[in-house]
Target: ABC transporter permease
Amino acid sequence: MNMLTALWAESLKVRRSRIIWISLMAATLLPILFGLVMAGLISSKPALEGQEANMQAYLNQLGVAVSVGGIIGFGFLYSWIFGREYSDRTVKDLLALPVPRFQVVLSKMFVAALWCAALAAWLFAVGCATGWLVSLDGWSGGVIADSLPRYAETTIMVICLSLPIGWIASAGRGYMAALGFVVLMVIAANLGGAIGIESYMPWAVPGLLNGAAGEDKMNLEAVSLALPYVTGAVGIAGTIAWWRYADQT
Model:
């Protein structure tokens, strides 16, 4: 059994689960809802508070949605793909397979990352289609192309910030500790903003990059921009170490 086989096995688990359809539905409905509100079709206001009703503002809101909501949503997906092995009591069967444990970890992380990236891409695509259908001002290929790099960077950052969730789910032997950690990090990011250290809180960086705290805080230092990637590297190393050295009995 090699790495490709492990990847196939993990992807098969995802494809057969109901959660993939739930996450896809959420990634479809969210941009549609934002678009309808931005166009003033389901709200008395023509746009989200503090934003102009145009395509650029709408795409900025999608970036904020991924940077904030993605921490919760992607964190849930990572907690599921790791925690289910303990909740379903299949971890011993998994460890008995003739495959190195680090390959098991990497295959889970890769499948989860691909899943999250696909959801983010779908959300952006639905958002672009929604903006065209509701005739938002400024809709153009140029605006979409200009927004795409930051959106992609935000998605990668949030995926990196979700990598430690696999470690927490493994150490906690289930979903609950990992989900609690996700909530704790969201609270910590908000508290960091309250005391003025949000640029040094990894989980706050994607939101800052997309203007969630105002345009004056969007220009981040290199140290701040590196924090999500460092957090992801620590998450990978910690999860591999746990699966390799911890007592799984």
Summary: The chain has nine helices and no strands. Residues 199 and 220 are 7 Å apart (CA to CA). The first helix runs from residue 3 to 15. The mean pLDDT is 86.
